[in-house]
Specification:
Number of strands: 12
Number of domains: 2
Structural class: alpha+beta
Shape: elongated
Largest sheet: 6 strands, mixed, barrel
Number of helices: 15
Radius of gyration: 31 Å
Strand order of the largest sheet: 2-3-8-5-7-6
Length: 412
């Protein structure tokens, strides 16, 4: 085996220009795959973190069935019980309480149906970044009793500004009429039209009084230390609530269940990326195929001599496959090394997309995007390159098995 390996390495450099070009193609593909996969995974992390900070949090504890049917009577009766569990759960960075109801909101001129959301001003900023999207006025504070923060599109539709009065009317939890008079203290612009057009935020205590919540909430929103801990925190919280006897009444949902649209967008982007990567790998595989077809044609007489001297066709096939494996592995290792260096640099310093800073800021995204190195991004692409190139090299190698010694030695 060692002798075959030495012969394979020597044979690669019989035509150094062709071998170097093939190595360069494999290395380039590996660099591109490592960097682009890391870029995709890093951008997904950024998008997910931005979305959960603006809207849902990493996890939510809700009444069973509330996510499917946003009925006001489906509530978390005892938020303090859930809070006690979260306080004792590793990986929980912060949590807050929210209550929501679809209601009519009226200004002096117009009335719209919107989602009225009650927030705990003291806790909300530790979980959500919505306070950072306030473009006029301020966010809710602990002293507010009648303050309201509305989206920019909703403020335009209602024709209201800072200090204007709004009347909220809806159905309370007990079936009575819920009513509240609020004053606009802030206008936010998240860049997400559904949120900016259809949400009014008010203090949780005022919401509970107006909607007869009796201290209950609709969701306990949790921010985890990072995305990697979400699954373990979800399992731990669900287990603790089950031990407390609340598992049938409460559901612990992660961001994927809360934002299926975002998951589908990521899946669609990932599929388009995979198609591009496969095209790239196929191009590299054809370069390997060309290299080894030429090698078989050029060395036909040599193979004939080997076979006449008693070398078995299987050994010749093994030697050609070793040549393919050595060339592919060398190119991949060089590509992984350069790809990791390139990705690590941009992971540390980030990439600024010219002219996109303001647009990204509207969606709560940073102007400087960072790829994210991981074992998956480093190994997956090069591994696919190696498998496909070895499969491609199998065809010219198997041609050797059909050679006849006399005919091969007469080949020109």
């Amino acid at each position: 085996m060692l002798i075959d390996l030495k012969i394979a390495w020597r044979n690669l450099w019989r035509n150094p220009r062709r071998s170097l070009l093939t190595l360069a193609a494999i290395a380039f593909a590996s660099v591109l795959l490592v960097f682009m996969l890391s870029w995709q995974l890093g951008s997904y992390d950024t998008m997910i973190n931005a979305s959960v900070r603006i809207q849902t949090g990493h996890l939510q504890v809700q009444a069973a069935g509330y996510e499917e049917k946003k009925e006001i009577w489906r509530v978390v009766e005892d938020p303090s019980q859930v809070a006690a569990v979260l306080e004792d759960t590793a990986g929980v960075a912060a949590y807050t309480f929210r209550a929501s109801a679809f209601s009519l909101v009226s200004s002096r001129e117009r009335t719209y149906g919107v989602l009225v959301r009650g927030l705990d001003p003291g806790r909300e900023t530790a979980v959500s970044s919505v306070a950072q999207t306030v473009r006029a006025g301020r966010f809710l504070s602990a002293g507010d009793a009648t303050g309201a923060v509305v989206g920019a599109l909703l403020a335009r539709n209602l024709k209201v500004g800072l200090g204007d009065e709004l009347v909220v009317m809806g159905q309370a939890r007990d079936g009575s009429i819920a009513a509240a008079v609020l004053n606009v203290v802030g206008i936010f612009s998240s860049g997400q039209d559904d949120l900016d057009r259809g949400v009014l935020q008010m203090p949780l205590q005022t919401f509970q009084e107006a909607f007869a919540m009796d201290g209950a909430v609709h969701a306990v929103v949790v921010r985890c230390d990072d995305l990697g801990t979400v699954a373990s925190v979800q399992a731990a919280v669900a287990g603790a609530l089950g031990a407390a006897g609340a598992d049938r009444e409460l559901a612990v949902l992660d961001w994927m269940a809360l934002m299926p649209g975002l998951v589908q967008s990521i899946q669609l982007d990932l599929v388009s990326g995979v198609i591009f990567y496969l095209i790239l790998v196929v191009v590299v595989a054809f370069s390997i195929l060309n290299t080894f077809l030429m090698a078989v044609f050029e060395r036909t007489r040599e193979f004939g001599v080997f076979m006449a001297l008693g070398t078995s066709p299987a050994r010749l096939v093994r030697m050609l496959m070793l040549e393919s494996a050595v060339m592919t592995l060398t190119g991949i290792l060089v590509g992984i090394f350069l790809g990791v260096l390139l990705t690590a640099y941009f992971q540390r310093h980030g990439i600024v997309i010219p002219g996109a800073a303001e647009l990204l800021a509207q969606y709560g995204l940073p102007a400087r995007m960072h790829p994210k190195l991981s074992w998956l991004s480093v190994c997956l692409g090069p591994l696919v390159v190696m498998v496909l190139t070895l499969l491609t090299a199998l065809y010219p190698a198997l041609r050797v098995r059909r050679l006849k010694p006399v005919a091969a030695m007469r080949a020109v």
